[in-house]
Amino acid sequence: MTILNTLIVVCTAYVFFLFAVAFVAERSARRGQGRWLRAPIIYTLSLSIYCTAWTFYGAVGSAVRGGLEYLTIYLGPTIVLVGWWWVLRKLVRIGRSQRITSVADLVSSRYGKSTLLGVGVTILAVIGTTPYIALQLQSVTLSFDVFAPAVEGGESTQSYTAIWVAVGLAVFTILFGTRNLDANERHHGVVMAIAVEAIVKLAALLAVGVFVVWGVSGGVAETLERIDASEIGMWEVSGGRWAGLTLLSAAAFLCLPRMFQVLVVENDNEAQLRMASWAFPLYLMLMSLFIVPIAAVGLDLLPAGSNPDLFVLTVPLSQGRESLAVLSFLGGFSSATSMVIVAAIALSTMVSNHVVVPIWLRLSGIGASVSGDVRDVVLLSRRLSIAGVLLLGYLYYRFSGGGAALSAIGLISFTGVAQVLPAMLGGIFWRGATRIGALAGLTVGFGIWLYTMFLPSFGPGTIVPMSVMENGLLGLAWLRPHALFGIDGLDPFLHALFWSISLNTVAFFTCSLLTFPEPLERLQGAQFVNVFQHSGAARSWSGGAAQTEDLMIMAQRILGADQAQTLFRREARKQGLPNGLPEPSPAFLETLERELAGSVGAATAHAMVGQIVGGMSVSVEDLLAVADETAQMMEYSARLEAQSQELTRTAGQLREANSKLTRLSVQKDAFLSQISHELRTPMTSIRAFSEILRDSDALSPAEKSKYASIIHDEAIRLTRLLDDLLDLSVLENGQVSLNLREGMLDAVLDRAVAAAVAKDEAPRLLIRRDAEAERIWLRTDLDRLAQVFINLIANARKYCDAKQPVLDIRISRGADGLVVDFIDNGSGISEDQQDMIFEKFARVSDQKAGGAGLGLAISRQIMARLGGGIVYLKGQKGAAFRVSLPADLAIAAQ
Amino acid sequence: MAGHVVLIEDERNIIEAISFILSREGWRVDAHSNGEDAAEAVRKAEPDVVILDVMLPGKSGHEILRELRDDPSTASVPILMLTARGQSKDRELAERAGVSRFMTKPFSNAEVLEAVRALTAS
Question: Residue ranges of the Response regulatory domain (chain B) (predicted)?
Fold first, then answer.
């Protein structure tokens, strides 16, 4: 019993020592004397939480069960630190510049601050880590029992031990893990304590190793002989398992919440990482140095059936080296506690930030305005989360019965958290990765892990029924948890690892390619992927002017230089600063944001302005990258739109040209057939009657005379038509020479009336004129003007259908010149025909009169040559034409 | 008496010429100068031959031709079409509509007489 008492005393003293170390470290950090706390060696040692009780005790057990395979667990992190140095560096840089607090935060931030992703990764982390915490509690309990085998009611002692350990860890973690609200602050006390623990566990393992090699075996050569003789040397190495385990431990090193906590969150500068890259692999090598000798000697010395997971303790005990055994116990205790503390901090941060606080904020109805209450709530929620995480671990330990071998639980946990890897690496190296892709990958990977590994781990028939294990879900053989898609005979661990990670990756890439990132996602993507291009020179927004200048640069990229400058000048004037830049007042920012939103969308505009003004870690270069991208897209779409408009316009022009051609062709046909008709009709009469005169001898003199005069009239009609056609052709071709003379308007009208009214007919048409107004001197081609007047008067004579036809000729003079209106009292010309009466051969239908329909066409041509015009005058009762002459041709009268 | 001709033509002098030529050979000629009710006039008169101008006030010769051909009572009456618009399109259009004979103005008197004779003989 003395040894048990010694153990309890030593253990208690050790715990107090750790509290003291943490306290001192915390205090000196607070006083600003913590330079030594940031030493790279402390950081390197803190990484040793990777070596948990699983490694401390389990490595020997694993060596006994599987030979050198345990080395893979050390190989993975070594590869990451040495070979993937740039991945780690990038992660650390992103973590610092984005103030990342956890794996969940990293993934959520990268994919547009997605709440869903944050919650998903948190749940995954909790489910993946809880067995691991249980494992640590179990190892402490088991090792404790090694010293107290004879205590009665061992079961209760065991659970008491576990409870005490859990409570003690909770208190320590709460004390030193939640001192500050800012989860991104370094936990110097905790880190210092685990650095000390790292030394203790390394020292303990080395001491046991040295004792085994030189104390028990009697030297290196003898030890090697023993190893060769034991079954360890006969284990065959399975390539698949080796590769799988190495990959897995590398992935877990990056993805485990606690590793992320010490690697990224607790990191202070990159010099720490540089040292860790060679020192930590060295540490791992030392940790693994004596594993095989201990295993071989243990198998030799201890009775068959002893638990190989406890050889580190039981070998010294069996040799009566109790103090060495106590040291060894402290090593194992250190491994377990340091892991649990950091895991609890990491998980509590996730649970608190992604689950508890958002729910609390929603329930309490408090918006984004952070007040003092919220601070307390966040701290409380983080503390409760720590207690909750440890409680979960304890419960898992109690109810799982602690049966499974340590290393098996470790692998399940590793595989679970490794599901974050595709979304994480994809997110920091590939801008095309999207939120949907990350969600899909995580869901697929997590689901397969649950189904093929986690749930079956409770033992066949516990959660997954035997029938499902053997025949597959719903009786589908290809859904058997250990032989998905019919791939049988694979190691269950490798099988689960392969399917979960590969389908996860496929889902991630496929969905990322198929979906389009949102503006905030794009912004964050640029931030993460290009972290090295700017975060080194993270600027601080000191003065208002600097901010406004940056806002100006951004606005110019988006709105264009002119518009942006106009906007800024206007806003500056509003603020009473007509010669400078506007102050970034809330009103101005709101206006700017609204203007930008018109170009890039509200969300992006808000993010961009917020990032600049809020002095967030987004650099100007990032914003400009996004702005450029958007501007390019807009320009491209504007170009497309312009092209399509141009095409539409061209098509319209072509259609128009085509229809014009068609119209012209129809007009030409119509014109030709009109001319033909007008010429052939008189010729028909002439030919018919001349044949009658030639062939008929028995015609009376009256008949002869009548037919001869028909021939004569038709010949004149034909001549007149030809004259008109020639006249029109000359006028249209512009070859007409005007005979400009001076004369009086009334004289021209007199001539026209006389010519239009045939002398031998009674003047049926009454023409009303205004002699006074007509006394105007003109200088123009008087004959041509008379021709137009004759035509108009003749038309009135022919077409006016009133009982008492009257034609009014009215003169008026304005600034534009002289106007002569011809208005009769007939029924006029219907509206739809007013447009076409000036066309050639356009005779208003149903009206049969002598002319060929060229009179108005000729008149229009003449008036155009004279510099005036002729139009149909609307709104009069009868037919009305207005002839106008320019002012310089209408010389003032008398 | 040689037969009855309905002449649909709006040019006064041409009506006079054709009437003279045909009546001298014993034909009875009824002239009709409006296109609008020309088909109705033909239906009433039941002539042996119709002489039809193309360009008429109210309705074109082509429309009257179609109307006559569509009406069973006038579908088989011989129709001689005269046009002053000497375009081949007119001839094609008329032939498709079922014209019996197509002539372009100006015509020779003997030719018209011959055509009318031939149309009644068949």
Answer: 4-120
